[in-house]
Structures are given as structure tokens and as C-alpha cells.
């Protein structure tokens, strides 16, 4: 169970983007979060994935309240979340080849010996051929790069997936392919999903339930 | 389809390339604005590379090869204008100026390169530490940087040199300690901008430690900028060495450096002997512009949008 309780967060002291927002994702559940742009839904997703410290409120993961964010969160807690962002260009280190991009979380956790097998298999799953794996981000398309970013999010087999507008930059066929990969992974592992977006049709078809930003008890920050 | 994007991206440079060719064959008299500037830029980069190559060759190869004493005094041949025996002429005690210029360039370049490297290391460390820790530490360090920046470099440099006995190393220390400030600013802002990129978020979520994020993602992103700052600093450092020596505070007068040579030539210039001033002066200006030209080309590759900025 991932519970966000009365979260207030923002990027400036005393000027929160939103106040007192609550959202719950049950184990294995897929929740779509819909809202207008700029409302703070991405920020809420980052708070949930322990990447942004909220000004107030609690994040409770499986009954245990999170005490630290970013590097202050214990490694096992951070890696329980697989995160995919909206813009693949910004979420991939431009210097890493796609293989290293996907393998980076394994290496960061001292599991570099598993790289060869895991990366090849995952790349195939997300639809990246071996000839693409040796390329750097600027040598592949947005769609191909987002496939690699999804593989990177899955490589540690997280219990929660946070997809922050994952398909906003992509065309319909790539969107369908990536959603299928996420669903296959969830069917296999029972991972929960928080999908943020403003494509109502997509999220309603993809997720078990969708939450409307205005229904979350959100009051505007200012 | 998003997968077709590389193809369209590949065709873009080809269409750009056809523009100059079209200008060549077309009977119209005007030229596209980009073509002239592009060719002069290529020429500038090439000539800069040749000059820097010659300088490195002269500095590394000539002294061990010729084995002449650049301090050999020949009073019978003092203050001779340029000739075949002495292409740059001789100074007021008959020392060959070509030889002294080459040796002087060697000393000045050594000072310039070492000082630039030391200053860049200090600046990178301070800037990265300030950006990484943030909060009060960042604020205090950057205000100190502002404080030191408000004092003229040369004045601070003179102050530092005055604490030591004259020699090469006090000059290096003085130039290094006065030139890391701008690098610290550049590196700090670069780290701050890199740190907020989503790929750092992704790395944290993937379990990367602070150290791993810094070494694997932040430092490689900053190094090109820091390296460029170092190269741009070399000519600046040579200027400062020359200025300190010219003021009589840098190197002792018998040791040939570009600054001491110009300084020693002051008296003879008033008597109408132009060569002891002109040639060391050219040795300061030409390699300096060449290094700056190469650094400018590097900067254009790093950041094509800043093309219009000055080179120095």
C-alpha cells in the first residue's frame, strides 16, 4: 500500500504548489492521476517516489512512514520505485550508451555481474534491438530513448512504478507498446502503478481507476 | 512514427550543406550570411592551431636541440638591429633576442599552464562543493568569491607575490590564487543546472549514492566547461606573469620571460631601438591570440548558441 496523506509540496518556501493532497495506491493496483498542466501532479508523483521532500504531510509505504527523501531515503526504499519521466532527452544522461543507461541501476547497487543477461533480455522486452544498445541518446529517437528509460526503471524489478506523463511525447504505436510492456511487467510481478497524465482516454483504458486532481482535496497553494 | 526521427534529423545537415554550393553556382551577387563567417572561422581555427603547434615545438624542441646559453653576454655585439646572425637583434648586453624570446616563452608558458591548471582545479572543487552542499555553505562561499572578485586581480596578485622571494613559483601561486574565482562560478552554476535534471532523479531512484551521482553524472557534465575555462585562462595567466614581471615583482631580471624581456627593453625603446620591445611583445600577443582562438572554437562546439560572444 502506497499512501500519500495530506501532502503539501512546492519548490519555494511558503509558496507550495498544492496543499493537503491525499492519494492511495493499493498493492497491484493501477491508478491514473488526471489533472491540468501545472497543477502539481508531477510533483506529487515525485513526492510519492521519494524524490521530492514535501513541506508537510506523510508518505506511508506498506504501513511505514517515509522519513527521508532523495539520498536520505534508504537505498532499498528508493529502489522499490521505478520512475519514468515525460521527456526521455532530459532523463537520460547524454554520455551513456543505451546499454549502460539500462544497466546503471544494477551497477549502482553493486550488481554489475548481472548486467549482460538482464539488459539483453529487458531490451528485447521493450523492443530495443542489439544494434541500438551501443548508441548514445542523441543517436536514437525519442521513442527509442523512452523505451530504454522504461527498461532502466524495470531493471531492479521495483514494487511500484511511477510513470510521469510517460507517453506524452510519443506517437500512438509507441505509446501502445510501452503501456503493454508496463502491463506485462505488472501481471508478472504484481507491482502497483501510479500513472500521471492528462490523456483521459488513455488513462481510463490503462488503469484500474483514475483519480481527478480536483477530487483529491487539493487546494491551490497561493 | 517517433522511430523515423533519426532519418529526418540526418537529412537536415545535408540541406544546410547545399546552401554554400548554391551560392557558388548562382549568378546572383549576394551571399548567404553564414558562408563568409564560416570560412573565416575555419581559417582562424586552422591558423591558431598552426601557431600553437609552432609554439609547442619551439618550447619543447629548441632549447635541448641548440644548447646555446641564452644568458651569454657579448658586449661587443650589444644592441644590434635584426640581422642574419641575430634575427631578432641583440639586447643591451649583447644577448641574442631570438634565443631569449624562445626561452622566455618557455617560462611564460610554463607559468601560464601550471597556474591555469591549479586555478581550474581550485575553482572546480570550490564551485562543485558549493553547489552540492547548498544552504549557508554555498551562500558564504559565493559571497567570499564576490569579495575576492571585487579586488582587482593584479592588485591581489602583487600582494601575494610580495610575500615571497622572487621566482617562478610565487608568480604561479599568485596567478592561480587570483584566477579560480570565475571558474568556481561557472562550475557552480553548471552543477546546479545538471543536478535538477531528471536523469539525476532517475539515478537516485535507481539507488545511486551521492558519490556515484557526482562522479558518474555531474562531474563528466562539468569537465568540458572546466577544461575550456582552463584553456581560456592560459593566455590570461601569461598576461599576468608578464604584467607582474614588467612591474619588477615577478621573475628576476636575468631570467628570461616575456614580461622581463619587455621590461628590460623599456630604456632602449626611448633611445629609438625598437626590436628589444617589439619581438617579445609579439611573442606575448600572437600565441595568446592563437590559444584563445582554439579555445573559442572549442567553446563554439560545446555551445553553438553562444557564437556571437567575444573570443577572449
TrEMBL record, chain A:
One of its GO terms (molecular function) is ATP binding. The keyword Cytoplasm does not apply. Keywords: ATP-binding, Nucleotide-binding, Transport. Residues 2-221 form the ABC transporter domain. PROSITE patterns: ABC_TRANSPORTER_2 (PS50893). InterPro entries: AAA+_ATPase, ABC_transp_ATP-bind, ABC_transporter-like_ATP-bd, P-loop_NTPase. It holds the Pfam family ABC_tran. SMART domains: AAA. Belongs to the ABC transporter superfamily. This is ATP-binding cassette domain-containing protein. It comes from Streptomyces solicavernae.
From TrEMBL, chain B:
It is found in: Cell membrane. InterPro entries: BP-dependent_transpt_permease, MetI-like, MetI-like_sf. Residues 1-32 are annotated as: Disordered. CDD domains: TM_PBP2 (cd06261). Keywords: Cell membrane, Membrane, Transmembrane, Transmembrane helix, Transport. It holds the Pfam family BPD_transp_1. It comes from the Bacteria. Residues 105-295 form the ABC transmembrane type-1 domain. The chain crosses the membrane at residues 107-132, 144-162, 218-239, 278-298. Residues 1-27 have a biased composition (Low complexity). It is a multi-pass membrane protein. PANTHER family: ABC TRANSPORTER, OLIGOPEPTIDE TRANSPORT SYSTEM PERMEASE PROTEIN APPC. Belongs to the binding-protein-dependent transport system permease family. This is ABC transporter permease. It comes from Streptomyces solicavernae.
